[in-house]
Amino acid sequence: MKSRFFTIIIVPDAKANFKKFTITKKQLNIIILTSAIFIISFILLLFSNIHFLKANANLKKLVPESKKLRAENESYKKVIMDISKKIEDFNLLAKKLKLMAGITQPADAFMENPGVGGLSNEEAINLLGNDKNDSQSLYKSSEQLSKTFLLLEESFQKQYLLLASTPSITPVRGFISSGYGIRRNPFTLTTDFHTGIDISAPLGKPVVATANGTVIFASFKPVIGNIVIIDHGFGIKTSYGHLSKILVQNGQKVKRWDTIGLVGNSGRSTGPHLHYEISKNDNTINPLDYIIDFENLY
Asked: Which of 67, 127, 141, 185 is the 20 to 30 A CA-CA neighbour of 135?
């Protein structure tokens, strides 16, 4: 019959008395099982601590990354708003270029629903939650603009002479002191129709022709003072009044950007400024509709 007991003898050294322990098989199994559970628990606890330490380290890394992402998101929103504003500006420019080019095609040539731009602050705040839709909207607007400018390019190639003869720039850098249309006359204090725009600028500042053409009048008139009138062909004329000095003469050919006179205060005027007027087929039109370089007006 097999023994149900195990004897453990401990001998500290050769001369010392040995110690003997007797243990049952059941007790040995319990000790082994307990030791195994302890070792497994220790290993699990060790791995758990290692995992916690790694997670904590990753969390510490995520904090600055989160701040970085927030900063990038703010930058992204600003870029989207800037792009939207540029698209809006391009839409306005395309509208003016179409007018200058004489393009009158119906909506199908420029998309039935032309793109409009501009994100509100609220839309910008919600941008990240709808980035797909906003991106698609911006893409659609850019595609519409691309088609518009392609059509404009084709038209410009066919109408180069008309474009060269169409006023498109500011005649002098300054600020608009009186706009086109109904206004209160500063001399009579009555309401009348102002046929051009007044651009206030320093006395003696150069005034340039806004398009190619021929000078048909360069002299003095009682109310407008020294004035230059240029015939650009195609029924278009421009007038530059209140000049302090006229630098061109009747019959002279001029090109866009050529200096034709100096800002003055001649005629009936409250201060140095240029009266700038555009007419088409002898009917005055708002010069602002034909000015592209708005950065020269403030």
From this structure: 67
Q: What is the largest CA-CA distance in the chain?
A: 143
Query: Per-residue pLDDT tens for 23-61?
Result: 777 777 787 788 888 888 888 888 887 877 777 777 666
pLDDT tens, residue by residue, 226-242: 999 999 999 999 999 99
Residues 265/203, Cβ–Cβ less than 8 Å: yes
DSSP H helical ranges for the chain: 25-101, 121-125, 131-158, 160-164
Cβ(206)–Cβ(228) below 8 Å: no
DSSP string, 126-178: TGGGGHHHHHHHHHHHHHHHHHHHHHHHHHHHHTHHHHHTS--S-SSSBEEEE
Tokens of 168: 């498109």
Mean pLDDT rounded to a whole number for the chain: 79
Cα–Cα distances (Å) from 141 to 81, 91, 249, in that order, read 14, 9, 47
Distance (Å) of CA 73 to CA 78, 100, 127, 152: 9, 40, 9, 36
| Residue 73 in tokens | 């998101």
Domains annotated for the chain, with CATH where assigned, are 88-164 (no CATH), 175-296 (2.70.70.10)
Provide the pLDDT confidence category of residue 281 given band limits of 50, 70 and 90: very high
